[in-house]
Write a structure and sequence with these properties.
The protein contains 5 helices and no strands. The chain is mainly alpha-helical. Helix 2 (about 40-50) crosses helix 3 (about 55-75). It is elongated, with a radius of gyration of 19 Å.
Amino acid sequence: MTNSIARLVLGFALAAAMVGTGMAANRGATAGGGVPTFDVRPSCKTGVDAGIRKDIQGCLDSENNARADLVKRWNDFASADRTLCINAASTGGSATYTELITCLEMLHDAKALKQKEARDNTTNGTGTEGRTKSKR
């Protein structure tokens, strides 16, 4: 079941990235490959207008904190994952750092889970590496 979850997460991120590939590549990417710069104000305004957020400043502060966290951890994420998640976060409107970091963490966690399952299967002899054909 956990393998299904990992596949679902990766599939979702890939699908979102494929939808937004053309649009996001120019909006959020930076020349040096660092953390992109997003205008999060429209997203924060929408959140306040929809009653999801109390005030714009609180949202902006939260997004600035998410960006600061991304700056610290940016190189911990695979380059392909960064590109995919920039595209996914930029799909369908204004991008946010919260969406970007969530995507990156989900991909990271899904890969770690898949690696753990592969190790567990090999160690327990339940993976294809440990299987032998039984003779009748």
